[in-house]
Structures are given as structure tokens and as C-alpha cells.
Amino acid sequence: MMCPGRGTSIRRNIRIVMSQSQLLSVEELNGSGVGPVSIALAAGERLAIMGASGAGKSLLLRLLADLDPGVGKVILAGQPREAIAAPSWRRRVMLVPAQAGWWAPTVEAHFELSMMEMAVTMAARLLLPPDIMKREVRVLSTGERQRLALVRAWVRRPEVLLLDEPTSGLDPTATAAVEALLVECSGEGVGIVMVTHDAMQARRMADRTFTMDKGRLGAA
Amino acid sequence: MNVISLHPYDLAMASTLILLDAVLSLVFRLRLHRGLLLAALRMVVQLVAVGFVLRYVFAVGETWLTLLVIFAMVLVAAREAAARPVHRLRHGGFLISLASVATPALLTCLFALLTAIRPHPLLSPQYAIPLAGIILGNVLNSASIAFSGVLDGVGMQASAIEARLMLGDTYRAATAELGRDAIRRSMIPIVNQMSAAGVVTLPGIMTGQILAGLDPMEAVKYQILLMFLLAGGSCLASMVAVYLAAARLTDNRGRLRLDRLVTR
After folding, report:
1. Helix A172-187 to helix A116-125 angle, to the nearest 10 degrees?
2. A67/B contact by beta carbon, under 8 A
């Protein structure tokens, strides 16, 4: 089954990227509490990063999303990060943090009108209630917020998804729904880097797994 | 004009109210007394000193001296505006405060001197210094509330701002609501002042002028002029303060740089 709402042109573009080279390439990336880190992500590949709390996993994701300053070579589909405007980079390499922020009182205010249909479909796939878009953010559970943050990111069609513990607040059924969706989406060419504390999840989901310790990545 | 001259004894009588406040603070353990007495003492010393300075500057009547006094007032106002927020910028806070206070205050002051008051000479100390003083006082308030709105508010809204950045919004779009909120808050005092003027309170300047023997209608005209100037200056100051403070909290990649803030 195809990932909902993904246009043909997007798929074609991603296939071109896949056939050309790696999607995301990181060399000697250093930032506060992280580095040096070198890593490569192919289109459609899923990487898992594990490690103790405070090892620098979330900081690495923030560095990749260009939310914290760092030095090193980061290349997306052949283009160095410096050549891409920062908002455009973050749209293409999108971070979904463990606890996402919300800037408006209602859920629907976080989605543009053009994204709403896809968002509703995605929300249903992730077992969210049918009226979720009409609800106020303050009444949502942690799990609902987590899944909505994923929906909110996904409908903006990133090329790389950086997920910080995307299922930590979910029950097994909802976790399975999220994992199934992520597998499908990576099948469409989206690269996924996922931080998790669940070794079983890393085994189920990841093509490659890394361990982070004191800001450095090593093979698991 | 019939001015009823005040004797130091009259002021001493009035100061018993401050002492009464201090006693109440001690009785009810409000821990206000030290700050209150210090502020009252500071106010008396500052005003007496400024009275002597103004008497001298008015007597000399030199433009350079007038400008020097206004410059000193601007520096103090900038320092005060930067000192209010709980969080302050690690670097460049004073310069931003100086720009936020000095630019609107001086522009508004010059505007009033050129278009409404038109004294001869233009920088006559009797007009320029009090005008600059009252405008600076209000601009200082607005700028410091605006600073506080951005510098203290950004920490609380950081996750919401970063959420927007993560989704590809520009820094400007992500912080727009924070800035708007800070400007709105900073304008509340002057809007309240205008709404209540003449109905709830007689504004301070007008009261002073009437007590000093000026015709009430003349005092009213001056008060209306001042209110317009203060509203204009305050709005300008808030906008400059918000724009510069927000600009200092980002970098060339449009990140939110909370590391540029320090907590007092």
C-alpha cells in the first residue's frame, strides 16, 4: 500500500535521488555535546540510534535538522547544507522531537487547509479519534500528541524524517500502527533516522543500528 | 501665576506616608520596607540634584549643555530599560536598549519641538529638557516591557517557536506572535493612561501645571500634545526593542539561540 497523499512527482523525484546517490551524508559533524559524527543515509533507509540518556542522541538530531549550530559537512541529495536556505533545509530534513511544541489552541490550526485531508487520513491510520482535528491541544494525551506531531511533520512531505523516540508514549497497538506507516513511507524513498530506547523496535525497524556514547556514534 | 511655594516642612509631612508604608510592611512582613525607603530616598536625592542642574542649565542657556543633559538622560534610560527583564542578553543588551530608547525618544522630541511647540531657540533648555524627560520616561517603560516580553517570553514559548522552525517556517514567522504580544503589552500603560485621562485621573503634568498656576485649558492642551507624543514614542520604542531583541536571538541560519540569554 502506498503512503497516503504522496504525489507521483514526489515519488519520481525521490526515485531519481535514490538512483543518483545517498540521500543524506554527514562528515565530521561537531556540535555542543556531539561529535565528531559521520553517517550516511540512503533514500528509503531506516537507521536507529540507541544509547543511554544524555549520550547526545537528541542533540545529534537537532544538529542534523540545523536547529543547533555545528561544524562539519552535511549534504542532502548532493547539495551542501550551506547552499540550502535554512527553512527549506528544515522542511526537507524534518525533526519530530520527543515532546513537540504547539503554537495554537486547536489541533486543526497547526495544519494548512490544503494539508487537512491528508492529515485526517494519516490520523485515522495512526488510530487517532475521528474528531481529533477539532480538539484542543491541551486536552490531548501524550500519545495523541506524539502521533499528531508525526502527522504534522509527514503532511509537509520531508525527504528525511528525524524521529526522537516516536513511540515512547504509545501502547503496543498504536506503536505497531506508527511502525507500519514508517515502513511504508520509507518504501517511498524517505530516509528515517530514529532514536529509540527499545532494542526490539530497533531490530524490527532499522536497516542499521548505531549506539551513541558521549556524543559519538558506534555500530551496535 | 500664583505659585504656592512648598516648604521642606511640607515635604517632610508628606514623607510620613512612606514611613507609614514601611511600618505596614514590617507589621505584615511584606519585606517591602527596605526597597521602598531606598527608592524614596533615591527619588528625593535624584530630584533635588536634577533641580540644581536644571536651574544651572536654564541660567546658562547653552545648546551644548542642553544636549549633554539629554544625552545623560538617554544613557540612564537605556540602562534602566535593559535592567528590567529577568533574562538579559549575554552580549549587546545595552546597545539594543540604547537604540530602542534613544531613537524613538529623540525623534518624537524633535518632532514636537519642530511642529508643535516651536521654541526660540529650538533647543531652549526650558522646553527641550522637560520634554525629553517625560518622553524618555514613557519610552523607557514601553521598551522595558517589550524587552521583557521577548527576553522573558521566549523561554516559555521556545518549544512552540522551535516547532514552527522544525516544520520549515522562517524565524520571523515563528516569532511573530511573541513580538506582537510584547508590543501589545508594552502599549497597555499608555492606552490606559489616555483612556483614563481626565475621567479617572488628572494626568501628572497637567496637575503640576495647574498647581503651578497655569490656566487649566492651557494645561489641557499641553497634556493632549504630550499624550500624542508619548503614544507615538512608546509604540516606536516597543517596535524597535522587539525587532532588535528578536534579531539578537537568532543567527544566519534562523535558529532560536537561547544560549544568547542569561538569567539574572
Report:
1. 130
2. yes
